[in-house]
Amino acid sequence: MVVIFISPLCALASALFSARVLHHVLLICAMAPLLAVAFPMRRFPQQPLALLVGLNAIVLWVWHMPGPYEWGLASVPTYWLMQATLLGSAWLLWRAILATTAQPGPALVALVATIGQMGLLAALIVFAPRALYPVHFASAEAWGMSPLTDQQLAGLLMWVPAQLPYLGLGMWLAWSSLRPFEPTP
């Protein structure tokens, strides 16, 4: 939490869209799974996993649309609303995925769906023909980057490093499910 909210990364995230996306990646791909491990579900999740995948996708997509994104940076309450909804939806998703490891099928489907929707959002950000986030235009140039380059770097951060925790857990679940079943004595 210190690295995400108190370090120079948080201040840099006000200037560069790529730093903001790195901030979000750390929030949903590092902090959320750590919180899910620290505060696991004690019983099978009440919400269907598909609902949590959808909720997480909607929250992620809405906050990365130019209008809501700029609104999220416009004031302290909206900034914390953005952070809380991104972390909260990711935490619920990670908790549900980690709770279903005894039956890896639904968890693997949820991981693939999350990787797919996040990859599509990242691709749209990377391949956009023009810069989409005016709130960062002047500050990106002050850091020696064009706004479009900053945006493309942000999309690449969302596309590659953000996928690794989901992919890693998916591979572990798939590998674990291949072990032969050994009944307990």
State the assembly state of the protein chains: single chain
Q: How many independent structural domains?
A: 1
What structural class results from the helix and strand content?
A: mainly alpha
Helical fraction equals over 70%
The whole-angstrom Rg is 18 Å
> Which term fits the overall shape?
elongated
Q: Count the beta strands.
A: 0
Give a quick account of the main beta sheet: strands, pairing sense, barrel closure. Answer: none
How far the N terminus sits from the C terminus, by CA atoms, comes to: 43 Å
Query: What does the average pLDDT come to?
Result: 89
Low-confidence segments, given as residue ranges, are: none
Beta strand %: under 5%
Total helical segments: 10
Order of helices and strands: HHHHHHHHHH
